């Protein structure tokens, strides 16, 4: 076999005369780094991250320990290592998105030698988990994102031209009208979804681009072409790019400027990609001939299978310890420290905030409303399935209480029918909770990347859902109303429909609020059903208002129960103006207001429109609480993390 001479001066085969490895130790003459280019110089020193351990005997489990490195404009840093070594955690640390279970984080992260808050347009982060609106096509997804991300002064045609270019560069032009797919509907493949996610992050040509597993699900050819396009854009726009990557091909590996190797949370190597071969060879782990260097590095430091390396003689943990210690004492590490000191010694330009260039509030609301409306229209489980169920229930309710008339028995029938409409029909709004959770996931991701504000999201979701809720309220309500034979006056039917509509709008706001606080699907459904169930119990039907226990049930539940106001409004709307007999077959001598006062404990002096107004006010209040809860979570979460980190560090 002929020897493969690498351009770093290493011949991995033994020399025939000496029997030793033909390794030439070349003193690398790295040039002194100078900050001549404009852009974002990202440095991180001694990054340490720990989480609460699942083992009670152990306090905290260390995820990262003393990781140091840097990234320059126009270059790509590859972060490699076995599964669970801390690649994603390092990217999360650099992006400021550490998980809530992080107990302690340490180290220093600077941009251009300064501690800067990453603002809109400065950084884009493609996380490992794909979060996309599955009902949209590729073109719609990228177009809507372009409308939200790109500067408001840019013409719409220019935004679409950039979107089309990014789609072509990621090789998605043949799937441009294909829906993303999900929930049993075939759409894009996993690799195509990954490329689509990259498209969304490349739209703004950010100063710093973080990619977590951008080539997962792609074949070797697609991986190369995707990464090659990212390299071209990196050079063209002087972006600073870091990517965590699994098992790159030799062609992809050759595209990277610097390499960060992690194992067991420690930096085994950080430095130029071309010098990694020499580093491993010097420490007794030369890359075999014709083998992909990336494969060799990962096989050498992989701890997943507890396999010994180097002929089965040296444990992997020992190999990692040897490499980590050797790296700490190497000239490469000293050069990295020197470069970081150079970058941090002179403070560079402050990365300017681009928030003023974003789409304004009205544009954000319009784009999000259109996108959300299309999503609701195409997702059968969002509203259409509920509409079918509501129509079925409306028919069932109408046939059960068909033409109840004005007899003695019609009083209880009216009360039962109106109670079912105001409580159990609105309870079915919980069925839309899975769709709410998916929408909240997309919102949280886009919110982290600064695409739009919380207010835009809340307003747009309210506007886009209103027509569907109106249809769901009107059609089944009309079926039940006229089959049962309630009062036929148009103004009374309009009030009936308004109460049902506002009640559904209110419950939908409550479910969105629950979805923002409890994003877990099963826990959210249980929590939402429990809250609505309590409000139904305290509405004044199962126990009349005057008979409710004062503690909790009367104060405060009866007064904050949304079903109380809907039920009372429907009672007043139906019973006022009617006369009923006192006994079966008797004359109609009992006034409807008497039934409201004596039998239902409802004060007739309060107008039914006040009940409707309170319902509408509660619907608005729930949306405001949703806005405040999201904002409060964004503000409080960093404070809690900092407190937990300090307390753990103190202990």
UniProtKB/TrEMBL annotation:
Compartment annotation: Membrane
Topology term for the membrane: Multi-pass membrane protein
Principal location listed in the UniProt entry: membrane
Domain of life of the native organism: Eukaryota
Record field: transmembrane: 383-405, 417-437, 468-486, 493-515, 521-544
Domain (ABC transporter) ranges: 42-289
Any single Pfam family the record assigns to this protein: ABC_tran
Keyword DNA damage attributed: no
GO cellular component, one term: membrane
MF-aspect GO terms: ABC-type transporter activity; ATP binding; ATP hydrolysis activity
Keywords: ATP-binding, Membrane, Nucleotide-binding, Transmembrane, Transmembrane helix, Transport
Entries under PANTHER family matching the protein: ABC TRANSPORTER G FAMILY MEMBER 11, OS09G0472100 PROTEIN
UniProt family annotation: Belongs to the ABC transporter superfamily. ABCG family. Eye pigment precursor importer (TC 3.A.1.204) subfamily.
Designated name of the protein: ABC transporter domain-containing protein
Originating species: Lactuca virosa
């Amino acid at each position: 076999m002929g020897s493969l001479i690498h351009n770093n001066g290493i011949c991995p085969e033994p020399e025939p005369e000496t029997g030793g490895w033909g390794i030439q130790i070349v003193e690398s003459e790295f040039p002194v780094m100078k900050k001549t280019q404009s852009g974002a110089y990202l440095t991180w020193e001694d990054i340490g991250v720990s989480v609460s351990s699942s083992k009670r005997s152990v306090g905290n489990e260390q995820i990262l320990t003393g990781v140091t490195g840097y990234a320059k404009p126009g270059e790509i840093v590859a972060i490699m290592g076995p599964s669970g070594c801390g690649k994603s955690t390092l990217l999360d640390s650099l992006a400021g998105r550490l998980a809530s279970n992080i107990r302690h984080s340490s180290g220093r992260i600077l941009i251009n030698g300064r501690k800067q808050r990453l603002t809109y347009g400065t950084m884009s982060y493609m996380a490992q988990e794909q979060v996309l609106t599955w009902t949209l096509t590729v073109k719609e997804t990228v177009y809507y994102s372009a409308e939200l991300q790109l500067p408001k002064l840019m013409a719409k045609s220019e935004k679409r031209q950039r979107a089309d270019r990014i789609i072509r560069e990621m090789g998605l032009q043949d799937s441009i009208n294909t829906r993303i797919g999900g929930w049993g509907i075939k759409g894009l493949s996993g690799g195509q979804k990954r490329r689509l996610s990259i498209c969304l992050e490349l739209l703004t040509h950010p100063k710093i681009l973080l990619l977590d597993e951008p080539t997962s699900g792609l074949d070797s050819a697609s991986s190369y072409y995707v990464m090659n396009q990212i390299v071209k854009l990196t050079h063209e726009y002087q972006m600073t790019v870091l990517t965590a990557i699994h098992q790159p091909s030799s062609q992809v590996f050759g595209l990277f400027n610097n390499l960060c190797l992690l194992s067991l949370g420690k930096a085994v190597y950080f430095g130029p990609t071309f010098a990694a071969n020499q580093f491993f060879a010097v420490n007794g782990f030369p890359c075999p001939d014709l083998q992909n260097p990336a494969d060799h590095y990962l096989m050498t430091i992989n701890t997943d299978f507890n396999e010994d390396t180097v002929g089965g003689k040296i444990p992997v943990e020992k190999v990692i310890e040897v490499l980590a210690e050797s790296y700490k004492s190497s000239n490469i590490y000293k050069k990295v420290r020197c470069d970081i000191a150079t970058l941090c010694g002179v403070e560079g330009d402050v990365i300017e905030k681009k928030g003023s260039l974003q789409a304004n509030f009205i544009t954000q609301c319009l784009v999000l409303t259109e996108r959300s409306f299309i999503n609701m229209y195409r997702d059968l489980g969002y509203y259409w399935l509920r509409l079918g169920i509501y129509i079925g229930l409306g028919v069932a309710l109408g046939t059960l209480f068909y033409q109840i008339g004005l007899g003695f028995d019609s009083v209880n029938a009216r009360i039962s029918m109106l109670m079912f409409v105001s409580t159990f029909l609105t309870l079915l709004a919980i069925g839309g909770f899975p769709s709410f959770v998916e929408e909240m996931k997309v919102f949280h991701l886009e919110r982290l990347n600064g695409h739009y504000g919380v207010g835009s999201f809340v307003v747009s979701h309210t506007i886009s859902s209103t027509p569907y809720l109106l249809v769901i309220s009107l059609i089944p309500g009309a079926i039940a109303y006229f089959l049962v034979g309630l009062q036929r006056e148009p103004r009374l039917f309009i009030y009936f429909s308004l109460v049902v509509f506002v009640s559904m709008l209110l419950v939908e706001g409550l479910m969105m609020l629950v979805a923002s606080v409890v994003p877990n699907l099963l826990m959210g459904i249980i929590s939402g059903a429990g809250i609505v169930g309590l409000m139904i119990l305290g509405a004044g039907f199962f126990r009349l208002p005057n008979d409710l226990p004062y503690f909790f049930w009367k104060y405060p539940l009866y007064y904050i129960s949304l079903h109380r106001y809907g039920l009372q409004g429907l009672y007043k709307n139906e019973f006022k103006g009617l006369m009923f007999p006192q006994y079966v077959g008797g004359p109609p001598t009992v006034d409807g207001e008497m039934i409201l006062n004596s039998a239902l404990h409802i004060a007739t002096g309060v107008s039914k429109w006040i009940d409707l107004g309170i319902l509408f006010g509660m619907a608005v209040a729930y949306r405001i609480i949703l806005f405040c809860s999201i904002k409060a979570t964004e503000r409080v979460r960093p404070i809690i993390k900092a407190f937990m980190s300090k307390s753990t560090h103190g202990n």
